[in-house]
Amino acid sequence: MPIANTGATPYYAVIFTSIKSEDGEGYGKMAEAMVAAAARQPGFLGMETAHGEVGITISYWDSLASIAAWKADKSHQVAQKTGRERWYSAYKTRICKVERDYDFGAL
User: Fold this and answer.
1) Structurally, how many domains does the chain consist of?
2) Is the dihedral of CA 85, 88, 94, 95 positive or negative?
3) pLDDT tens digits along 25-56
4) Is residue 10 assigned to a domain?
5) In a domain, 106, yes or no
6) Which residues contact 63 (CB under 8 A, 6 or more apart)?
7) Ramachandran area for residue 105 (φ above 0: left; ψ -120 to 50: alpha; else beta)
8) Has residue 64 got a pLDDT over 90?
9) pTM of the predicted model as reported, rounded to 2 decimal places
10) Do the domain assignments include residue 68?
């Protein structure tokens, strides 16, 4: 997944940091579906993800209202519930306002 081209600041970042449980069945398919569903949401600006011992997914949004709408999305609620029940032993979600950004190289 490339570096997200988020456009002009300010915008918001939702940082989802997780530790997976042993039960990973169906996780990959659901993760792909959630990326596609998030991309269809109004206000979605992009996403970046890295997985290792700790997984980190950052999604970018144009407003707090867009983040709230995504959190309330029915398919996302199913994924959240399943994640708590099966896929994660721990997670933390952080919502941040990005005031400034800069880059290097081709995005």
Assistant:
1) 1
2) negative
3) 888 898 899 999 999 999 999 999 998 889 99
4) no
5) no
6) 12, 43
7) left
8) yes
9) 0.89
10) yes
- What is the 3-state secondary structure of the chain? CCCCCCCCCCEEEEEEEEEECCCCCCHHHHHHHHHHHHHCCCCEEEEEEECCCCEEEEEEECCHHHHHHHHHCHHHHHHHHHHHHHHEEEEEEEEEEECCCCCCCCC
Interacting residues of 78 by C-beta distance below 8 A, sequence separation 6+: none
Residue 73 lies in a domain: yes
Domain that holds residue 41: 21-98
Tell me which amino acid residue 77 is: Q
CB 37 within 8 A of CB 78: no
Q: Cis omega before residue 10 (within 30°)?
A: yes
- pLDDT band for position 107 (cuts 50, 70, 90): low
What are the backbone dihedrals phi and psi of residue 15, each rounded to the nearest 5 degrees, phi first? -105, 115
Task: Write the CATH number for 85.
Answer: 3.30.70.100
Pairing of strands 44-50, 88-98: unpaired
